[in-house]
Structure formats: C-alpha cells, structure tokens
Write a structure and sequence with these properties.
8-stranded mixed beta sheet; 5-stranded parallel beta sheet; single chain; disordered C terminus; 296 residues
Length: 296
C-alpha cells in the first residue's frame, strides 16, 4: 500500500464516523488531516456531500445509493468501513507537485475499454496545439508510450516526438526536475490528464456500448463527456439514447488503434479520425471545467 503525506480535509457530520475516518487515513495511509487553509491547503476532502472548494470523496454507510452523490459532483463514493481500502487508490486531481491550470479526469466504465489510449490521445491533442501537458496514469501506461526519454526522473518523462507532452507513470508520485523544464522545478502544466482507471467519477467516461454500459451511464454526472469505443452493433437511435443529450463522441473500432497499442506507438500511431474524435471530446470536457486560479 502506498503511503503518502497527502494533506486532506475530513468533513463529516457524524462525529463517530469522523473519528474513525481520521484515525484510519492517518494511521494506515499516512495522510495528513488538515483544515483547508492558506498554510497547508488540502488537496482532497472526505465528506458526506460535495464540497465547493475541494475535490470530494463521499464517505457513506453501507446500503447508501451512490448515484445521487455522483450526480451532485463527488469524485467517488466509499462505503465505510467495507470499502475503506479503496481510499489508497483515490488520489486528488492534481497528483503532481505543482497543480495544472486545468485537470481532466478520464475513467472507464469497465476495464479494458481503452481508457489509457484515450487519455494519451487527449494529452497529445492538447500538446499539438502548444499546451504543456502531463498525462498521469498507472504503471500499465508505460507499455503504451514505450521507452521514455533518457534522463527523465523515475516515473516522469516526455513522449518522444511530441514536444510538451509528458507522462507521469504511477498516480500520486511527485516529480522532481525533468526534461520538461531542463533544470530546476518543472513549470506548472497547462493541462493535467488523469487516467483514473475504472470509475464513474470523471470528466470523460470511456465505454463500450452494451447493456452494462447503459446501466453505468445513469451514474454519470450530466456534465460528463461520454466516449464510446465502437458501436457494439447498435443502431443509430440506440446510440443516441445512450448519450441522452450529454456531449460525447463515438470512436470507431480500428485495427490501427490496436496495432498502435501493440507496437507502443500511442498516441503517435493513431489514425486521424480517431484523433479528431478525441479532440472533440477534449473540447467538450475542458469547456465545462473552470481553469484553476491558484498562483503558479
């Protein structure tokens, strides 16, 4: 289990639950419980409802329906104490040391739906437009981008051939000086793309259109952009019902996408139509997210 001195705020009306959650995150995770203030601002909040000033993980008792909380804007819901072990994997939106101007969280509604491929393509689309981008992903992302540039710090490196795009392998690992800035502290990225894995708490949700997908889409917030990988044999009217008025795109199934992943050429080896769809999804998601205002 990763132990990181992550500053968190715990805001729970139930005082017994408050004490239990505080003791667990301090003793088992090594997190630092703080008041959200200017001296040591929290980067995550554990609460019973969404908090306007911090990304929030809702802590609820077993039997709680998570859908209303997810629709209200929490990043995820942890049922206490049954799911307390999940907290170790729920990192804040800005896992690098210096927060980005904007953060886009990408998650799959199931495993093996191409979430990491989409996250890397999102980062590349922004970098090709002159933005400084970091894609934060779990260790499996290394297989997609291939060897990172020599000289980069462990876990962080630029994607060869795409200036301005870097990958942070291992969520929550703070980077040191990297080739992004040459020497000294790396500059704050314009955009952070976080590959969250399997979750319903995201700005962009990736799914394969099937019956399970339709059920999980109901748990997404209305502002979440939906990316469908293929059509799953569904008719156009059925695809429209899956979107149900929310923004999103369909990324057609492609042998070139599969080959790019196999040859470790994501995102450079992706076809133009795939990149066009990802670009549209990125525009929908970032247009709905207010830029951060914290000083660089």
């Amino acid at each position: 289990m990763r132990r990181e001195a992550l500053p968190v705020a715990v805001r729970l009306a139930d005082q017994v639950l408050l004490a239990e959650v505080t003791a667990y995150v301090e003793a088992h995770l090594g997190w630092q419980v703080v008041d959200h203030g200017p001296h040591l601002p929290a980067r995550l909040c554990l609460a019973d409802r969404p908090q306007p000033d911090l990304p929030t993980i809702a802590v609820a008792v077993p039997g709680t329906d998570p859908r209303p909380l997810l629709r209200a804007g929490v990043r995820d819901v942890v049922l206490w104490p049954d799911e307390q072990g999940r907290l170790a994997d729920l990192v804040p939106d800005d896992p690098v040391g210096r927060p980005a101007d904007q953060v886009v969280v990408v998650a799959g509604l199931a495993s093996r739906v191409g979430t990491t491929t989409v996250a890397l393509a999102l980062g590349a689309c922004a970098a090709w437009r002159g933005r400084r981008v970091v894609v934060a992903t779990s260790t499996h992302g290394r297989a997609l981008v291939g060897p990172l540039e020599a000289g980069a710090v462990p876990g962080v490196g630029e994607v060869p051939g795409i200036p301005g795009l870097a990958v942070q392998v291992g969520l929550g690992t703070p980077p040191g000086p990297s080739s992004l800035s040459g020497t000294g502290s790396p500059p704050r990225p314009h955009l952070m793309v976080v590959d969250r894995g399997v979750s319903t708490g995201a700005h962009i949700a990736v799914a394969v259109p099937d019956r399970l997908c339709a059920e999980q889409i109901e748990q997404l917030t209305p502002s979440c952009t939906l990316v469908l990988r293929g059509r799953g044999g569904l008719r156009e009217a059925e695809i429209r019902r899956l979107f149900d008025g929310r923004s999103g795109v369909v990324l057609e199934e492609s042998f070139r996408v599969a080959r790019a992943g196999f040859q470790r050429r994501v995102p450079i080896g992706l076809p133009g139509r795939y990149v066009d769809g990802v670009t549209e999804a990125l525009g929908s998601a970032t247009g709905a997210i207010a830029p951060r205002t914290a000083a660089a």
